[in-house]
Write a sequence for this structure.
């Protein structure tokens, strides 16, 4: 009996070993997929999720449904219109350009309400100051900019005035000084409603000639200042100082100086 009892554990061990060997033979003879499902508890009962993922999935497009890369890139690099910028502002965008767009819009609305007309007391300084105040109300960085010298500026439309210039002969704008502003680092001229520092031809001297003032400018331009109740009543611009002198001579042929 002792001998039989001592052999029982050996028999059990041998039987387990044979069963394990048989199981390994059965597993190795099964299809690969079935083996994987049996060994991976996370896959069993999942309807074989891995088989649902295509091996060669097409690349997803990142911009709409367009497949033309050149077309998409061209549209992304296209310059934004004023309407685009204002739309981004209304949706919460907050770049310097969009802040300036907001100031422009509100300035235009306020000027329309007051039926703004360009003139004394409501000139470039008035407009620049108004734009700065609007910007500061929104918490934007803003400052007034000024040039104190007399200047000529190329002709063009200004706010509140139907004219394109205020000089004769060579059509330009003449200002004794000029104001504009800077908003979030961007130069802005509210009078011309343009971005960037104004392109100014600054005064380079003044000459008195036959009782008229002739302004000289750095570009070589010259302007005869008009005077009321004289033969030259309008500011008149010429290509050179010599041309301005000749104009005064022709216009005032009967001129006599005090020394005559």
């Amino acid at each position: 009996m002792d001998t039989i009892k001592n052999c029982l554990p050996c028999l059990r061990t041998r039987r387990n070993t044979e069963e394990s060997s048989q199981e390994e033979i059965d597993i190795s003879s099964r299809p690969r997929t079935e083996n994987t499902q049996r060994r991976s508890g996370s896959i069993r009962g999942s309807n074989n999720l891995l088989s649902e993922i295509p091996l060669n999935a097409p690349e997803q497009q990142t911009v709409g449904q367009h497949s033309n890369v050149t077309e998409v890139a061209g549209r992304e690099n296209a310059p934004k219109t004023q309407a685009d910028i204002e739309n981004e502002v209304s949706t919460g965008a907050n770049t310097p350009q969009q802040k300036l767009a907001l100031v422009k819009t509100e300035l235009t609305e306020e000027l329309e309400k007051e039926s703004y007309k360009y003139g004394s007391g409501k000139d470039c300084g008035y407009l620049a100051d108004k734009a700065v105040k609007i910007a500061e109300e929104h918490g934007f960085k803003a400052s007034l900019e000024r040039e104190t010298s007399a200047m000529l500026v190329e002709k063009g439309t200004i706010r509140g005035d139907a004219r394109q210039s205020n000089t004769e002969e060579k059509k330009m704008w003449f200002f004794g000084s000029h104001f504009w502003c800077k908003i979030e680092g961007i130069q802005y001229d509210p009078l011309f409603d343009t971005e960037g520092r104004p392109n100014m031809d600054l005064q380079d001297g003044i000459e008195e000639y036959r009782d008229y003032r002739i302004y000289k400018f750095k570009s070589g331009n010259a302007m005869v200042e008009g005077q009321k109740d004289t033969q030259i009543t309008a500011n008149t611009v010429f290509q050179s100082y010599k041309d301005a002198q000749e104009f005064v001579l022709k216009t005032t042929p009967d001129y006599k100086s005090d020394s005559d």
In short: Confidence is low (pLDDT under 50) at residues 33-55, 57-73. The radius of gyration is 43 Å.
